[in-house]
Amino acid sequence: MNLPYFPEDAPFTGEQKSWVSGYLAGLKTRILDGAGKPDAGSVASAQQSVPLHILFGTQTGNAEAVAGDVAAAARELGFAPIISGLDEIEIERLAEIERIAIVTSTYGEGEMPDNALAFWTALSAETAPRLEHLSFSVLSLGDTAYDGFCQAGKLFDMRLEQLGAQRVAARVDCDVDFEKTAKDWITAAVPAFPKPAGAPTATAVASPAKVETAAAAWSRKNPYPAVVLKNRRLSGTGSAKEIRHYEIALGDSGLAYEAGDALGVMPVNNPTLVTALLVRLGLSPDASVPGSDRPLGDLLTFAYEIATPSRELVAAIEARAGDEALTHVLRHGDKEAMSAWLWSKDILDVLNVNRGVALTAEEFVALLKPLQHRAYSISSSPLAHPGEVHLTIASVRWRAEDREHGGVCSTFLADRVAEGETAGIFVSPNKAFRLPVDNDAPVIMVGPGTGIAPFRAFLEQRRELGAKGTNWLFFGDQHRATDFIYEDELTAMGKNGLLTRLDLAFSRDQVEKIYVQTRMKQNGRDLFSWLEDGAYFYVCGDATRMAKDVEDALCDVIATHGGMSAESANEYVAALRKSKRYLRDVY
Ligand SMILES: Cc1cc2nc3c(=O)[nH]c(=O)nc-3n(C[C@H](O)[C@H](O)[C@H](O)COP(=O)(O)OP(=O)(O)OC[C@H]3O[C@@H](n4cnc5c(N)ncnc54)[C@H](O)[C@@H]3O)c2cc1C
Ligand SMILES: Cc1cc2nc3c(=O)[nH]c(=O)nc-3n(C[C@H](O)[C@H](O)[C@H](O)COP(=O)(O)O)c2cc1C
After folding, report:
1. Whole-angstrom Cα distance, residue 189 to residue 167?
2. Structure confidence at residue 25 as a pLDDT band (50, 70, 90)
3. Whether 510 contacts 471, CB under 8 Å
4. Which pTM was predicted?
5. Which terminus of the chain has a smaller tally of CB atoms within 10 A, N or C?
6. What is the distance in A from the centroid of ligand 1 to the CA of 469?
């Protein structure tokens, strides 16, 4: 994470600082309903009842959706809910606000979601105002698989307390299956916010009726069974990658999306792995599991993650296996050694550390996490492909312990859903990753590998809209001969003038490694001039290395060609982020 962005004087330990970076955001608090539209009911009731500000920090929309649920509950209790993204509120506004409910996810490795960075930086600065007049409660969304579990929510909760604000209900940290926990927090937190005497106890203005559309019915919990129309390999023969293009029919679902959104896909586990686990444990697929009305085979196929081992499973096996290497890494608490030990091992491999370890069906299931959907950046424009959604997915495969291993969802789509068969899907809107409203604005897109997905959608969308703005794409992978995916389409877009510039970086076609960030620097003068002309800068793909290297290159280009110090270049990037001209979809 980019520590230079953290204020020098911020009152945190080095460890806390390492979670944090960000920039100041703009002020544009809106009164919204749960669906993100102006809510006449709330506007009216705001004049009569007590405002409750609901601030969300989100990368992929979950926190925003929960914020909508908080608003609905608040309205019922007579509050006037006011929903804002954390990038839409300036810290100075807190002086006039009395109640805030924060719902935030955590991203990267224990980092703030992009839209929370600026607000967090201001809140964590030494100059942040005292907030004794403020009541608050925090809901954090996260994933226990990450070391920095719910770190963003924890930081907000701690900092608000430090600044003197009153916590009205304890922070709640949600794991991936957040719905029930979030609901419980809403039930506890919303009524706990103080109201002045005489304020209405229930909404004086009727809430707008909730229109339940067919599309709204499809969700994580209830995915739409969509027909897969096409599954074709994009990577050429001999490539180290297997990137595939999928076309999926939206049929009669009523599902709609915009360029920039993601699609949630609910996988079904590999039956070969299910059988191998049952054989290893000596359990029958028909075995019953206390507390469930489904047999074990069904649960392992449809309900639980059976590939990536949970911490609980690793700990349980360590306790029984008597395996020196595993005991050593686990007991020493060395996270890197643990990751190295776990790398390439799935649950079956962990069980096989000691084939004598036995588990009952009940014990085994208790050590598994619920099966989760996977998100994929949509690679089509709805205008170009009405009724369809396209995805660009790298199949995750590796060989270890004399066995083929596969990522759950990418191989489910690649191997186990034939064309004409169905997969469960739902749309996961990403309002923070959109083309400029101004069709004349220039756009720079950096998307190596599968990172190209949303940019195919953007380019198609701009073509369909007849947008006049210039488009510059940086794309790359290992080898041009095998990894230049969508080459025909991009070439055609170049010829017809839609794709103004295409800069390619194939890392292994020459002795020295060339990446997209290398090309950015080589074309730094033009890149800076595009930015000066108002270009929007987008990044999609690998979060661990690529996105960080691209940000460093961006700062470098701005410093070099704008004749600025590193600090001023960082401020320039901060301003881009604040004005929503630097947007990322990284994973
Ligand atoms: C917002 C968002 C957008 C995304 N968009 C895209 C997209 O457009 N295209 C795309 O392809 N992906 C995309 N992803 C990633 C995608 O969601 C999945 O994470 C990815 O497909 C892997 O899921 P899986 O179920 O196949 O693998 P999982 O079952 O989740 O397994 C992945 C795990 O396997 C292990 N592993 C992986 N490779 C190896 C190896 N070589 N050796 C040993 N172990 C290994 C690692 O521990 C890794 O964490 C996106 C993610 C997000 C959050
Ligand atoms: C690339 C990536 C990184 C993540 N990093 C963390 C993390 O460090 N800590 C954590 O608790 N959760 C982490 N999560 C889980 C998200 O916080 C969780 O999925 C949350 O529900 C997302 O909410 P949002 O859609 O509002 O952003 C990560 C998820 C992704 C996809």
Report:
1. 10
2. very low
3. no
4. 0.87
5. N
6. 33
Is residue 98 within 8 Å of 135, Cβ to Cβ? yes
SS3 state of residue 345: coil
* CA 537 to ligand 2 centroid distance, Å: 23
Mutate to test the pocket of ligand 1, among 374, 416, 433, 539 (most ligand atoms within 8 A of CB): 374
CA-to-CA distance for 439 and 437, rounded, in angstroms?
6
Dist. CA 305 → ligand 2 center (Å): 17
Cα of 406 vs centre of ligand 1, distance in Å, is 10
Print burial letters for 24-49: b (CB count within 10 Å at least 16), e (below 16).
bbeeebebbbbebeebebbebbbeeb
313 C-alpha to ligand 1 centroid (Å): 21
Nearest to 347 by CA among 446, 422, 274, 271: 274
What are the residues whose beta carbons fall under 8 Å from the beta carbon of 383, sequence distance 6 or more?
460, 461, 464, 465
The answer to whether 575 touches 540, Cβ cutoff 8 Å, is no
Angstrom distance (rounded) from CA 326 to CA 347: 14
Report the separation in Å between the CA atom of 404 and the middle of ligand 1, taken as the mean of its atom positions: 16
Atom 22 of ligand 2, nearest CA residue: 105
Residue with tokens 């290398």: 518
327/515 Cα distance (integer angstroms):
40
Ligand 2 lined by 113 (C-beta under 6 Å): yes
Nearest 5°: phi and psi at 456? -60, -45
Q: How far is the CA of 448 from the centre of ligand 2 (A)?
A: 22
Q: Which amino acids bring their CB within 6 angstroms of ligand 1?
A: 60, 262, 307-308, 343-344, 374-377, 392-394, 396, 398, 407-410, 450, 453, 587
Q: Per-residue pLDDT averaged across 297-324, rounded?
A: 97
List phi, psi (to 5°) of 63. Answer: -65, -35
Please give the pLDDT value at position 390: 99
**Any atom of ligand 2 within 6 Å of the Cβ of 58:** yes
> Which residue, chain included where needed, has tokens 């949970």?
310
Q: Is 235 in the pocket of ligand 2 (CB under 6 A)?
A: no
Q: What is the 3-state secondary structure (H, E, C) of 419-456?
A: CCCEEEEEEECCCCCCCCCCCCCCEEEECCHHHHHHHH
Minimum mean pLDDT range among 53-62, 244-253, 383-392: 53-62
CA distance 57 to 60: 10
Does residue 142 line the site of ligand 2, with CB under 6 A?
Answer: yes
**Ligand 2 pocket, 146 CB below 6 A?**
yes
For ligand 2, say whether the CB of 179 is within 6 Å of any of its atoms: no
pLDDT at 377: 98
Question: How many Å apart are CA 215 and CA 340, to the nearest integer?
Answer: 43
132 within 8 A of 164, measured Cβ to Cβ: yes
